[in-house]
Amino acid sequence: MNNNPETIEINGLKTIHKLCEFAVNHNMEGCSFTEIVERMFSELEETTKKLVMKASRVELTCEQLYAAANFGSPDNDPDLIDTEVTIAWFESGHSGSGYYAYISEYPEEGAIKLESKLGAEQP
Question: Is the predicted pLDDT of residue 61 greater than 60, yes or no?
Answer without folding.
Answer: yes
